[in-house]
Amino acid sequence: MAKCIRCGKPASVHLEGLHFCSDCFKIHVEKEFEEGIEGHAVGSRLVNAQEKVLVAVSGGKDSMVLWYLMHKHNFNIIPVHLNLHYGFFSEKSLEVVKAFSEKIGQEVRIFSVKDDFGIDMEGVFKKAKNRPRCGVCGTIKRYLINKIALDLKVDAIATGHNLDDGASNIFKAILNWDFETLSRNSPLSPPYKDKLVKRIKPLYRLSDAELKAYADMMQIDYTSEVCPYKIGSVTLSKSKEVLNEINEEFRGIKRTFYYGYLRNRDIFKKEEAELKECKICGMPTSSEDGICSFCKLTKDIENEKEI
Ligand code: AMP
Ligand code: ZN
């Protein structure tokens, strides 16, 4: 029987060729979370104990673990869930988030794209019929969560993006020599003027498999339902698969790859062009015509062909 690499007792968690007993696995996950908050390999701390943080919770394993850990470590957090009204998927997400809120006795703020912001996602998808729905939804979610964060006057937005997300994103960006992504992908995105709230990804040191094992061990409920509109990028999911395959053979290479990028990402740094203010909503935009992609997707405007 394999022994725990930390204490030598019989191991019950076996991941990436490492073996842990359950107590040591919990310590390992919390240590990686703490080092994530401290910004190891990033170069600066993601967030301080005094800062107020909006935790974006989708109901999936990553953001539920994030909520649990931020709560456990006494961060000043406001959990926020955005109801997209995607039938059973959204009902299940809402149910999980509400049940967890009751379980740990912490209020979660629920916002509805339809009732609070008057957005009909079906209408948005029709308008942007040439764009993948997953990307369109991402634009709407990012914009609205930032808007909620501004209204709630928080200092940061935390999301559940994990190590596999970060590493596969960079791997895909290198395959495509996508310098735009390489220049700005980080677990810490600074605020922009008073318009874009700082964004942090405290789970960037924990893998998909670690987060799943931890959620199961700690009995943190989550939904495994896949979003009906998730026709994710083929290159991205393939990148995840390939990285994990290489990692099976060359243990730890996924981390070496990603942390190496984080330590050296300044080599991809570009002069940031000054952003314009959207003619409709005033938010920062790089769009040529001065109308941000959120407004193009949700407002009645003439040049819809550019969506
Ligand atoms: P995704 O892009 O769906 O993989 O989600 C990435 C992160 O965005 C999640 O880990 C959450 O932190 C956040 N998120 C996604 N969907 C929602 C939602 N409906 N409400 C709140 N946060 C969300
Ligand atoms: Zn706008």
Q: What does this 3D model show about the protein?
A:
With 307 residues, the chain is α/β, with parallel strands linked by helices. It folds into two domains: 27-270, 3-Layer(aba) Sandwich (Rossmann fold); 272-307, no CATH class. It is 44% helix and 11% strand. The chain has eleven helices and ten strands. Helix 3 (88-104) links the parallel strand 4 (76-83) and strand 5 (109-112). The longest helix is centred in the middle third of the chain and has 19 residues, at 133-151. The protein is globular, with a radius of gyration of 20 Å. The model has no long low-confidence stretch (mean pLDDT 94). Bound molecules: adenosine monophosphate and zinc ion. The site of zinc ion (ZN) has 7 residues, from helix 11.
Search tags:
binds zinc ion, 307 residues, single chain, Rossmann fold, 11 helices, binds adenosine monophosphate, 10 strands
Topology:
Elements: E1 13-15, E2 18-20, H1 22-38, E3 52-56, H2 61-72, E4 76-83, H3 88-104, E5 109-112, H4 121-127, H5 133-151, E6 156-158, H6 163-175, H7 179-184, E7 188-189, E8 198-200, H8 208-217, H9 234-249, H10 253-264, E9 276-277, E10 284-285, H11 293-298
Parallel strand pairs: 3-4, 3-6, 4-5, 6-8
Antiparallel strand pairs: 1-2, 7-8, 9-10
The structure holds adenosine monophosphate (AMP) and zinc ion (ZN).
- Name the CATH homologous superfamily of the largest domain: HUPs
Shape: globular
CATH topology of the largest domain, by name, is: Rossmann fold
How many domain regions?
Answer: 2
